[in-house]
Amino acid sequence: MKGKEWYQADDVAQEYDSKRFSKGGRLIDRREKEAVLAALGPVEDKNILEIACGTGRFTVMLAQEGANIVGLDISRAMMAQGREKARAAGVADRIEFLRGDAARLPFPDDHFDAVFAMRFFHLADTPAKFLAEMARVSKEQVFFDTFNDQSLRVAYNWLLPMGSHLYSERDVQRLLDDAGLDLVDAAHDFVLPFGFYRKIPNGVARPFRGIDLAIGDSTVGDDVASVSYWNAHVTQSAAADTRATDRASDAE
């Protein structure tokens, strides 16, 4: 995965939220949480897996909504931050933080009601493998976001310490097809890239966000959006094929 060593550094984990979700980044945090809740729907008593849970922003939020959730990440330092948040919120009993590899998930087929990943696929060096694993362990739903290749994000992508993988709609559709997933709906947002919002005060960011939303609601909004949220369901035929393959492997 791109920037793997950078991502796992203790100092990165300690400053991750404060650098990204303060100032104008608060707007990003709120919008991303809205997107996750809107896609996953009522989550009370659902079993959910979050890939690349990081510092637990979404993990803790969903536990507060009543979900039983596993947060998987490669960074011990990031998950330590998540455990602190869970304890402070009083939901530690609903969350299991697990260090693991998203390309080889340690769960059986159809284990979770939903599987999701945020801020992950732009770092993924083998996105097809990751998405296939997410589909394998989900009974029904897979949700994730991507950064887009026809957006202003291209202008500063080279500045990022780990680089970033940008996707076209065709790229995502190919990944979904290969993973046996049907796209249910998609949302596109943030004409102005995240890096812009993180650099300006929250009060200044609000007027820019208004302009951003106005462009997003126009006829060209989807085409120039820097972020897309993809909500997909596992096809029954794909799930059956997976189970048949597993049975054949066990018999050998």
TrEMBL record:
One of its GO terms (molecular function) is methyltransferase activity. GO terms for biological process: methylation. Keywords: Methyltransferase, Transferase. It comes from the Archaea. InterPro entries: Methyltransf_25, SAM-dependent_MTases_sf. The keyword Chloroplast does not apply. Residues 48-140 form the Methyltransferase domain. This is S-adenosylmethionine-dependent methyltransferase-like protein. It comes from Haloferax elongans ATCC BAA-1513.
